[in-house]
Amino acid sequence: MAKYKATSNVVFTGDELDQSFIGGENYDLPVKTADDFNKRGALSHPELSPFLVRVDNKKEETEEVEN
Questions:
Q1: Angle value at C-alpha 18, between 17 and 24, nearest 5 degrees
Q2: C-alpha distances out from residue 24 to 2, 50, 55, 58, Å
Q3: How many domains does the chain have?
Q4: How many C-alpha atoms does 44 have within 13 Å on its Cβ side?
Q5: Is 26 domain-assigned?
Q6: Which residue(s) pair with 34 in the sheet?
Q7: Boundaries of domain holding 41
Q8: What's this model's pTM, rounded to 2 decimal places?
Q9: Residue 63: inside a domain, yes or no?
Q10: CB half-sphere exposure, 11, CA atoms < 13 A
């Protein structure tokens, strides 16, 4: 799961899944689901793509300490 922010109001329908998003709101979604929504949205409305942008912080990388 990751946090995504909707860039506009949008409703995705079909394939057993109806999902609506409100622009400016944050949502917890599986990465694959968000990628699928963005791909579907790019086909129907490329001028508004991407519909969902990832907003969660990048994982902190551990630094190795040299002795």
A1: 125
A2: 16, 13, 11, 20
A3: 1
A4: 11
A5: yes
A6: none
A7: 2-54
A8: 0.72
A9: no
A10: 3
Query: In angstroms, rounded to a whole number, what is the distance separating the alpha carbons of residues 26 and 67?
Result: 43
Asked whether the predicted pLDDT for residue 67 surpasses 90, the reply is no
Instruction: Please enumerate in sequence order all residues whose Cβ is within 8 A of that of 34, keeping only pairs 6 or more positions apart, or say none.
Output: 2, 4, 52, 54
**pLDDT per position as a tens digit, 13-40:** 876 678 899 999 999 999 998 999 899 8
**Hunting for tokens 């694959």 — which residue is that?**
32
The C-alpha atoms of residue 1 and residue 29 are separated, in whole angstroms, by 5
Structure tokens at 48: 């508004």
Asked whether residue 62 is domain-assigned, the answer is no
